[in-house]
Amino acid sequence: MTGEDLFAAAHSRPSASGAVTDSTDGYAVRPPLAVRMRPRTLGEVRGQEAVLRPGSPLRRLVEGSAGAAGPVSAILWGPPGTGKTTLAHLVATAADRRFVELSAVTAGVKDVREVVAAATRERDLYGRHTVLFLDEIHRFSKAQQDALLPAVENRLVILVAATTENPSFSVIAPLLSRSVLVTLVPLGDADVGEVIERALAHDDGLAGEFALQEQARDYLVRIAGGDARRALTSLEAAAGVALDDRPVGAADDGPIEISLADVERAVAVASVRYDRAGDQHYDVASALIKSMRGSDVDAALHYLARMLEAGEDPRFVARRIVIAASEDVGMADPTALQTAVAALHAVAQIGMPEARIILGQAVVHVALAPKSNASYLAINAAIADVRAGLGGPVPLHLRGSGYAGASRVASAAAAAAGRPSAPVYRYAHDEPDAVATQDYLPEGLTTADYYHPTDRGFEARLQTRWAWLRDRIRGRGGSAAPPS
After folding, report:
1. What pLDDT, on the 0 to 100 scale, is given for residue 22?
2. What is the mean pLDDT of residues 96-113?
3. Domain 279-368 classified CATH 2.30.40.10?
């Protein structure tokens, strides 16, 4: 069958004479590619090896080897396109079971009772189990879920329920306790790639009539986001675009090539040149940080958008913004770190697509804020001294005193240092302006000078305050009153 035949078959119906004729009514519509490529055996299922390992409850249910205890019901929880419907169909094929499918979006208690009544007849007359696949079970109310309990309890039906929401919150406890919970995970890139390659070659798929460019394949894998159905739907749409672009009367001399441009047109989203696991991951992240440091809001927003559109983990982006807020803004605008940390927590709770708004606000704040790396340089300088072995023991008057025998330890330490007694700690709140003149740094570092405030933003106020504080603490005199 040629590429034209494959797509013509999707919009055709047999005429009275048996010939296939085009029409705008009565179409014998061909099932979507994702439906045609649904795995028919466990060996064709991709990405769920953990829950289908030999001996697992789901595998035993699919293979019809539930044992003396009988088959158990299952609740399949996972993102779209991870195989929930496929696994339900596989459960139904085991041991000649009858399969009934309901959607919680449209079904009600009446439909459930009809299924249970039919299941009872099947069991009594033919000895067959009935598998009830209930999609979107989280949309069932508590009363509707209650209607399932007797049939599940007595194994009149094998319930296989699918949900994209956490069953702990969306499924009633009695139903959960009567079922095994199976958590499905998004497919990895390699698994999605295998699904695409199989669809290109399989007779039920595109039957070798189309060839996929490497860039187009990588893009399909990336935009799928671990969703096999989305990958196949996008592939089918791209094949249609490639077929439409083929010159009229072109010789049928090989597979029709699907290019990156075909995929971009099919999904109406331009490909973002970004490799989450390679150099571009770090290059674009670096460009984002340097654009915020350089105060170019437009550039920073561009790189943020580029990362998000490429499917970058928004939590990774939020962490980079937090680092930039402290390293590059610091005390020039202390509220930048507050905004960045709030964004980090909010993104973890909300997720995409709304997280883009929060990240955008944080990027704008950090980019527009006055810049200072004084805190960053100060901690690096302090660490360098520590690594160089500088600095003696903690001064005696600063050591802990909240334990029995602390005074004896201090006296012994003072005697070892050749002093008649340990220095007395001066409580800062008893001093004017709550600043006491005493040594805080250990011996060997009494002249350390790490922090140098800039004259930018809020930190400009800290310049004169830190100079006054340093003089008072270290006994260098200075004005009696602190700077305003």
Report:
1. 43
2. 87
3. no
Q: For the domain covering 3-34+188-267, report its CATH number.
A: 1.10.8.60
Question: Domain residue spans in the chain?
Answer: 3-34+188-267, 48-183, 279-368, 383-473
Specify the CATH number for 383-473; select among 3.90.330.10, 1.10.10.10, 1.10.3710.10, 1.20.140.10. Answer: 1.10.3710.10
Q: Is the pLDDT of residue 166 over 60?
A: yes
Q: What interhelical angle do 335-350 and 314-324 show, nearest 10? A: 170
pLDDT confidence of residue 434: 86
369-409 pLDDT tens trace:
999 999 999 999 999 988 888 887 778 777 776 555 556 65
Q: Does the global pTM surpass 0.90?
A: no
